[in-house]
Amino acid sequence: MVARVILEVALGRELDYLVPSELEGQIKPGTRVEVPLGRRKAFGLVTEVAKDSPSPNLKPILRVVATPSLVTPTVLRLARWIAEYYCCPPEVAFRSVLPGAVRHPDADWRRRLYVRLTPPQGPLPRLSPRQKEILHVVEERRALPLTELQQLTGANVATIRRLEDKGLVEIVPQIEERDPWAREQILPTTPLTLNEAQSQAVRAIVEALDRLTPRPAAVSDPSPDARPGAPASPGVFLLHGVTGSGKTEVYLQAIAAALERGRGAIVLVPEISLTPQTVERFKARFCTGPLRTLVAVLHSHLSAGERHDEWHKIRQGRARIVIGARSAIFAPVQNPGLIIVDEEHEPTYKQEEAPRYHARDLAVVRGRLEPAVVVLGSATPSLESYHNARQGKYTLLTLPERVDARKMPRVRVVDMRAALRSNRGVTMFSPQLREAILQRLERGEQVILFLNRRGYATALQCPKCGFVAQCPNCSVAFTYHRAGQRLLCHICGESRTVPAACPNPRCGDPAIRYAGMGTQRVEEALLRLFPTARVQRMDSDILQRKEEYRRILGEFRAGKIDILVGTQMIAKGLHFPNVTLVGIVHADLTLHQPDFRAAERTFQLLTQVAGRAGRGDIEGEVIVQSFTPYHPAIQYARRHDFEGFYEQEIEFRSQLRYPPFTRVALLTVRGRNEEKVRFVASHLRRELETHLAGWDDLIMSGPAPAPLERAQSYYRHHLMLRTRRMLQLARELARWLHQVRLPEDVRLTVDVDPVNLL
Ligand SMILES: Nc1ncnc2c1ncn2[C@@H]1O[C@H](COP(=O)(O)OP(=O)(O)OP(=O)(O)O)[C@@H](O)[C@H]1O
Ligand SMILES: [Zn+2]
Ligand SMILES: [Zn+2]
């Protein structure tokens, strides 16, 4: 027998090894092993077991490192698919399916050793002052991690071992679980009585669960066509439910059905909506009763230890439900019956570094490999997913109304050009918005104000010469932050103190002032206009710590805050019944970006933010301030008309051959020398033309400077390839990348299905 092993060192490919007969029973896909590599040894993961290998002179595997395996065979197949489709080296793909904290069991082993007090037996033996000190610490804590005891006392392991020899303490392996929500008390909930639309949705999902074929016994290769948008997959549902329509209740009852059938569930949510409120709704439903199970939570703010614990809970089957951000799609759930992707349209599901996977698309692929039922949910589905539903590739489920026949909020669009004409200079709040806020304050109702830009003002601009302070590393304006009077680059983090006068040597005007506005400036203006109102700002500047986020949401829920001002952090998932007014301060911000999805993003953002209003008994109102009030994205959002927006947007995509009618591979050439980058980019285009000659449906555009031409002092040029056959193109690109020669200081990256075109 031979095993194919992906090594943890950056080799870029898998190697075959002999399986010694004494290890035969232990080696399966997912097993971590130590193998010889040249004259050294290396760690690796078995990705496949086969009868024989094409390579001669195989060396044997040295030993098995950790059992049980920390990754399921299906996830390994998913990793292989990632490497192929997203055009990245296999070891990068394999590494991403295992988080660092679980990848190194040796390091973990030491970290997981605990020192604990043993029951006293007879008189205390004679101890050195040093030993007494250590014992004292252990007595106080009863048990603590070995490493922590070492840190606290400065003792080495040998000294502590001597205490163990005297029978006073013992050193034991123990898994201590750090539940980040441990202090929260969770009140169990029971399933709600569903309305007609919800029942229909749950019924369709449960029927699909019952149709799931048993897991295939033999591990066969993933079908090369196992990709979203390929042949019909009756196991994928698109749940299109307006904001407040009760999608979460549908998820909960579908999960219950999966558990009843002995299967687990994975729930993906965007990182920013992975709030305690969301997590609690899942924990509360499954913390008691016959379906009782732990809910594991995975997100990027977990400490290594917490991540480790969550991972093991899943692997040991104690947690049958996993809720997490995009990397949770790799969670080692055994036999998952259901994979849910909430807010499936969210761009944060795309990973912006290699491997550049899209977790929503991986959910569809994993669903096919397991097999498992996949539910993609959103109030504003992506054009890609809705198109798939229209084509019959996904099954569309619709929740057209809010629960309890609550009305959708009334949306008014205010033309800010008029407001600008009637007032001197730029106004932040139109009279309509000001009046509406005042009304809510008088009635004791709550307000959310949304502006998709943090900081105080966009830019520092000189009124006399037009000078704008720009980051020296990136081609963007600095953002002014009031705290500490600093200019901050939101791309690279470069910061400067604010100049007292215009830095332009030919100008020097002291009247330098601020153009545009950010959340800080909105907050300040509110305090001036409504001095008694309790205003709280919520953006990533404020939320350096997760407790802060929870505290603010808690206070808002408790009615201790009247007006919440924030960026897209407050746009989704939040449910506050007392919010009756949502103001969108500047709706055009996302509209004018050089991205074919700009209108789609704007429509989604407006709809989602508007959806925070009127979720209680009182009807909600939304005021949208805009300088382009007649833009379709704004008008369709005003009428809550997703279909209308879809019809008009899909027409534009079709005419210009953009996704979903094609798939995009974006090539970025980066380097510090502008001339060289430009030269290499044109050279690569010519090479690609030769390499891909005869490819019939290829559209190649560029090279062109990226919209964000310079970032972190690198010049960037783009080449865009579009085709309907991306998997084949990715294979061609991989072959081409192997042979392409680049100057040392120029880098090339490939992003398949990019969501960020800047
Ligand atoms: N069948 C039902 N009967 C009564 N209340 C319900 C029902 N279904 C859901 N709800 C309640 O309605 C509220 C809104 O539901 P939920 O948050 O699930 O909506 P949503 O569709 O996920 O909204 P959004 O997309 O805006 O986040 C919640 O408080 C939920 O408990
Ligand atoms: Zn000037
Ligand atoms: Zn910068």
Automatic annotation (TrEMBL):
SMART domains: DEXDc (SM00487), HELICc (SM00490)
Coiled coil: none
Residues that coordinate or bind Zn(2+) 1: C462, C465, C502
Catalytic activity: Couples ATP hydrolysis with the unwinding of duplex DNA by translocating in the 3'-5' direction; ATP + H2O = ADP + phosphate + H(+)
UniProt record, GO biological process: DNA recombination; DNA replication initiation; DNA replication, synthesis of primer; double-strand break repair
GO cellular component, one term: primosome complex
One Pfam family in the UniProt entry: DEAD
Subunit text: Component of the replication restart primosome.
Name of protein: Replication restart protein PriA
